[in-house]
Amino acid sequence: MGVLLVASGIGEVLEPFLDGVEGNEATLGAHHGVTLFGVYTILQALTKLTDGVKDVGEGLEKLRDRGGEVEPSNGQGG
Questions:
Q1: 3-state secondary structure the chain
Q2: Alpha-carbon distance 67 to 59, whole Å?
Q3: For residues 53 and 71, is the Cβ–Cβ distance under 8 A?
Q4: Is the pTM of this model over 0.85?
Q5: Taking the C-alpha atoms of 54, 58, 64 and 67 in order, what is their torsion angle to the nearest 10 degrees?
Q6: Per-residue pLDDT tens for 18-47?
Q7: Comparing 36 with 12, which gets the higher pLDDT?
Q8: Measuring CA to CA, which residue among 4, 74, 77 is closest to residue 39?
Q9: 6, 8, 9, 26: which is closest to 17 by C-alpha?
Q10: Pick from 1, 20, 26, 76: CA 20 to 30 A from residue 48's CA?
C-alpha cells in the first residue's frame, strides 16, 4: 500500500514543484501528505519485515539445534 501511495504521490508532487521552481512559487497540497504517509507506511512495513526475518532465523537455528525434530502441535496456534 505504501509503495502505491508513494508512486501516485510522486507525480503529483513533482509536477507542481517543478512548475513552482520556474515561477518562484511554492504550494503545498494534499498530495504532499499522501506521499509522506506512503513513505511512513513503507518504513513501518520494513521494520515488520526485518522482525519477521529475524524470527525466522531464530526458528531455523532452534530447528538445527534439535537436529531437525519438530514438536507436535496442540492445535492452539502461535
A1: CHHHHHHHHHHHHHHHHHHHHHHCCCCCCHHHHHHHHHHHHHHHHHHHHHHHHHHHHHHHHHHHHCCCCCCCCCCCCC
A2: 13
A3: no
A4: no
A5: -140
A6: 665 555 566 666 767 777 888 888 889 889
A7: 36
A8: 4
A9: 26
A10: 76
Among 18, 38, 17, 21, which residue's Cα sits nearest to residue 29?
A: 17
- How far are the Cα atoms of 5, 59, 69, 70, 74 from residue 63, in angstroms, in the given order? 39, 6, 7, 7, 18
Task: Name the residue among 39, 23, 43 with its Cα closest to residue 31.
Answer: 39
What's the pLDDT at 25? 62
Pairwise CA distance, residues 38 & 7, whole Å: 9
Long-range pairs, 14-20, Cβ under 8 A, ≥24:
none
Domain ranges in the chain are: 2-64
